Amino acid sequence: MVSLALGVDLGGTNARAAVVDRDSGEIVAAHKEPLRARDPAAVVDVVSHAIQAATEALGVAVGSFRSVGVGVAGQCLGSTGVVLNAPNLGWRDVPFGTLLAERLGVAVRIANDLSAAAWGEKRFGAAQGLSEAVLVFVGSGVGSGLILGGKLHEGARGVGGELGHVKVRPSRPTTPLRRCGCGMMGCLEAYTSGVNIAARVREELSAGISSRVLALAGGDPARITASVVDAAWAEGDAYARALWDEVADLLGAAIANVATLLNPERIILGGGVVLGCPNLVRLAREQFERKVLVAARQGLSVERAFLGDDAGVIGAALLE
Amino acid sequence: MVSLALGVDLGGTNARAAVVDRDSGEIVAAHKEPLRARDPAAVVDVVSHAIQAATEALGVAVGSFRSVGVGVAGQCLGSTGVVLNAPNLGWRDVPFGTLLAERLGVAVRIANDLSAAAWGEKRFGAAQGLSEAVLVFVGSGVGSGLILGGKLHEGARGVGGELGHVKVRPSRPTTPLRRCGCGMMGCLEAYTSGVNIAARVREELSAGISSRVLALAGGDPARITASVVDAAWAEGDAYARALWDEVADLLGAAIANVATLLNPERIILGGGVVLGCPNLVRLAREQFERKVLVAARQGLSVERAFLGDDAGVIGAALLE
Fold this sequence. Notes:
Two copies of one chain form a homodimer.
Chain A: E1 4-10, E2 14-21, E3 27-34, H1 40-56, E4 67-72, E5 75-77, E6 82-86, E7 91-94, H2 96-104, E8 107-112, H3 113-124, E9 133-138, E10 142-148, E11 151-153, H4 188-192, H5 194-206, H6 213-216, H7 226-234, H8 238-262, E12 266-270, H9 272-276, H10 278-291, H11 294-297, E13 301-304, H12 311-317
Parallel strand pairs in A: 1-4, 4-8, 9-12, 12-13
Antiparallel strand pairs in A: 1-2, 2-3, 5-6, 6-7, 9-10, 10-11
Helix pairs in contact in A: 1-2, 3-12, 7-8, 8-10
């Protein structure tokens, strides 16, 4: 008899529930459902339905699980299940853990989605067998998940790992600091996430800069992505070169600083910008190598995430 | 019968051995001895002698201790006792733990001095009873010690906590990046340690800047310290104001970024620059408040270190 666990990955557009084999980390059943509305009650409906669909496929009752783990794209208080701030859902101070537990009749454990993903990579992915590892995610947002001393490090209130909101100073300080989705100025995410890179390029095109980026996006600003900038870089586009120098410098320094502070065994890179921008990744790695403390670099490996989009739901299911 | 532990604080100019009551954290006997020479054999002599003097005062044999903990001002491999880099001692890759253990006939546990100090503060000081705390030290050097999940976090190889070597970008980028004592460019320590602040002021005075700092140092550049700059700031000196704006910005941002990443319950400030520069500390705290992630700020207290210069030797004695 396999031992099963139940996890949910709650993003801004979908909820995905999965039943995970505790011994192998395999997803044995899953169901993904779009979020039609974002008010907490509606999201509880969708998540419950996704869980029902995933468990019914196996003929297992939800009540037979000890608990449900949920990874939420936002800042969460692990101990209370309150989602402090989830910009993609438009939530502030939503007691989602309590709401979902009342609906399901099962204990609910909430964590940040990247903390859950880091735990998934620790249990069955790129950090398996390691005690000290940092998952760095650069996608539509930027963040990290910390495995320290063999455990998931969520900090005093559960909001640890918010690498996207460390403050950085851009190399072109003639422009004012950029505002982040969190409301603060000068966050790493404001300069290096896919969403923010695309927004900045659109702004700067509107302001009159010249770049191959627009042509590579088929002349449609809405189709500009970090990946398109990476393609323009490869063509030698001066604007893309300067932008990638800055973004790579900020990302490389931020990751180097995490390694210098925490001395992990492995840094794991994931997210759509990492996957879609090979030139940016190479430049950021060069900056990382220049900036990481020599003693912290020894014995440190830098790897791609293994579990991809499954890391969050696997990790959520297996949260302790 | 009290249970005793033996610790050593090995700085650049002195070795101090202490016998510590495990139950109260009190130092029951101590002996401090100057380092006349810095080659490893000579330092082993001095440390052994300090230990003998501290233990003989109590009539206890060194061999009756399970182990000796040593906090070293440098980067140390905790597991092997190798000191990778101790600039004040001029050491690179010195197997000090092994050398001292051979001399004493007792197991030796080596740690970075600020890791030891953080552990001392955790056991009997400003972090007592807390699971998540960061000791930030700003003195002749800059560094940190991390208490995470109730334990001392030293990282994969023992070099965790090197906050002084995170890379920062100064606000006056017209000047080239400053070189740190570690050999790298743009480290926090290069801008914010007492030694580096004084060196920079002397350089800039030589280059012709005008400031009250020199007069406040009695006209003697060798007597310039961070504390003198702080006094010039209080007199409204424009040079001191601009310098403190930059140093406070870098320190405040670096500490805010640690809090954003790790979500501790408490940040503990220690070191001579913290003690001697009240205006700088106030400015740095203002920058910290502006830059720390709001969710990580809630429930976070910022306190002065309790144990002062004793933290390192108490923590070293009680290392696990």
